[in-house]
Amino acid sequence: MRVALPASLSQLSMSIAMFFLNRIAIMAGGENGVAVFTSAWRVTMLGIVPILGMAAATTAVTGAAYGERNTEKLEAAYLYAIKIAFMIELGVVSFIMAFAPQVAYLFTYSEIAQVIKQELISALRTLPIFLFLTPFGMMTSAMFQGIGEGEKSLILTIFRTLVMQVGFAYTFVNLGLGLRGVWLGIVVGNMVAAVMGFTWGRVRIRAVRRALR
């Protein structure tokens, strides 16, 4: 329950964050803004799929290492998962950004949808950037679950979604950046949260190592 309940609440926090991000997109670009955000987000979420698989594996392997009281194996699995996920995301983000016009066409082939095409291309060349550092935060959350500290994973998720993503997006839009402020806010918010989460993860592993000596 210490892992399962926070994991469920993490999903809830992400849904709440999406609600606020949609409201911010409406504030910045009206109905077209929501259409662009929804389309770009769907494409970007394809890049999350490999990370989710790596996160599930990280939880299992770090949990086994923790049960074995083998902190060297725990840290090695955690860092290796980040390394592999980062390499995967490097390819995914490069593909999306390089073929942004072609990907945007899938959502704007009709004459009516042409009005959002350029804005969607811009979004696809900005929004996926946050995927580069996502493995650092997501693998940390998975590692926390593996060692039975689901509440830390929940705190990290709430900090990333409701505090950083929504906070930066709202701030940038109010600074007059329009829809671009939404994309930049999500990117900056995720990256800040990822760096802080990774730092917390390394500190926690050192604490576990001292405790299990």
From TrEMBL:
Location, primary (coarse class): membrane
Reply yes or no: does the keyword Transmembrane apply.
Answer: yes
Read off the Pfam families from this record: MatE (PF01554)
Q: Does the keyword Cell membrane apply?
A: yes
Chain segments annotated as transmembrane: 12-29, 41-66, 78-100, 120-142, 154-175, 181-203
- Keyword terms of this UniProt record: Cell membrane, Membrane, Transmembrane, Transmembrane helix, Transport
**InterPro entries associated with the record:** MATE_fam (IPR002528), Membrane_Transporter-Flippase (IPR052031)
Compartmental location: Cell membrane
* Topological category with respect to the lipid bilayer: Multi-pass membrane protein
Instruction: Fetch the PANTHER family from UniProt.
Output: MULTIDRUG RESISTANCE PROTEIN NORM-RELATED, MULTIDRUG RESISTANCE PROTEIN YPNP-RELATED
Question: Know the name of this protein?
Answer: MATE family efflux transporter
* Biological source species: Pyrococcus kukulkanii
